[in-house]
Amino acid sequence: MTNMSTGDINQQGFKLPTVIDPPDSLCFTIPVPNDPGHIAAFFGAMLELTQWISWQRDAGKHGKDAAAVWREIYWNLQAQSCLVPIASHGAEQEDFMPLRVDCDCNVFVTCCDGTEKQILTADQVRALLTGPAVNPAPQPAPGGGCQTYNGQIIGSQRQLIPTVVSTGDVITLVSIAGATSPDTTDWFCPDGSTYFAACVSGTGGMNVGACLPSTTIYSVILIIDGVYYPFTGNTFTVPAGIANKAPALLVNALTTDDLDGTLTFAAQVCNNSAVRFTHHFNFRLSTYGFVIDTRGGNSNCAWTPGSGYNVSVANAIPPAGDGEISIHLDNALALNNAVMRIVGSCTDGSVDGQDLITYVPPYTGAGAEFYGQNVSGPIDFQHAFLAAVHGLWGIINAGTVLGQVGTLTDFYITADGPDPF
User: Fold this and answer.
1) Which of 43, 144, 172, 282 has the most CB atoms around its CB within 10 Å?
2) Which residues contact 222 (CB under 8 A, 6 or more apart)?
3) pTM for the whole thing?
4) pLDDT tens digits, 146-198
5) Cα 64 vs. chain centroid, distance in angstroms?
6) H/E element holding 74?
7) Domain match, 118 and 161 both
8) Which of 222, 250, 271 is the last residue before a domain boundary?
9) Torsion sign across C-alpha atoms 317, 318, 323, 324
């Protein structure tokens, strides 16, 4: 319908009306064959009127205004019997499609075989189009998984890629086609080169007024967390300092440009974040090989099925280990970027989590990272470790007063890589 290579503002398309948005309208009753293919074709034909590119071009870009008028009409299209009077004229037509409307305003059409099909009203269609997605976009799996997303960059708009990216992830433009124009006379390809029947190699330049002045103007660029980035070839690697941010594609135009044209793309996102696991040790069910530290023979901690590890202070002046749950599990593998979580309770004591860097029976903890906090009541303690974790150690002190109690019910470990436990 258009010929972008001519540069003529009076290109083919629907002739622009003298009055773009007149104060009144006429209503027409149009019988549409009751078949999904015909109905889709009808809506597709009507949709053409809502696109600026379907209208004759002029210097004032009035095609966008005409398209906006028809978009409002398109949103309010409603299926009804041809027998139903049109409010503005009161005309009746032969009843081609017997309709039934229930008490919830759902509309049904009776087919020739006597069955009924529901016809969505304009409000129901609008709710489907503007409501939340039933099925979210598929996401690339950690550890190098890739996912391709299709979309369009319309004029000066930004087009979100429906995922989040972090440092090291890679975005690749698998394909991109179309052209954009700041004035409907000069057209540019996705790499910023001039479009004249085809992309003209060696054309295009930079402009200090562009979103990204150091990159070819009217080329496709990225924006992530408010910062613009160029593609190198068709590939971009997310730099350091970015975590779980949504990327978007746009044209590197002047901030004052109101672009015409549409670019259709397929963008692949590869998630290079490390595979991580979380393992839950539910001590109500098992000890999972954790060993109680005897603490010089003073420990009175015990594991009870259905309850977990339990302890109480047995002495008025408790020696080290009395009233203390201290359990460990040696692990020959290094766990990187580990997060330890301990769940339980104590009367008035403390909770600690430690990396058994040098655990060799009997226990020695030299060089281990050690973190803890005082607590009374329920415990849900969590800490992220800086060094690689080679073993797990959890401690809950019930308190220092005779009869005070403590329990340790759950131990969680999250780290990079597959679950080794």
Assistant:
1) 172
2) 171, 228, 229, 230, 231, 236, 247, 248, 249, 250
3) 0.48
4) 999 999 999 888 999 999 999 999 999 999 999 999 987 899 999 999 998 88
5) 31
6) helix 62-75
7) no
8) 271
9) positive
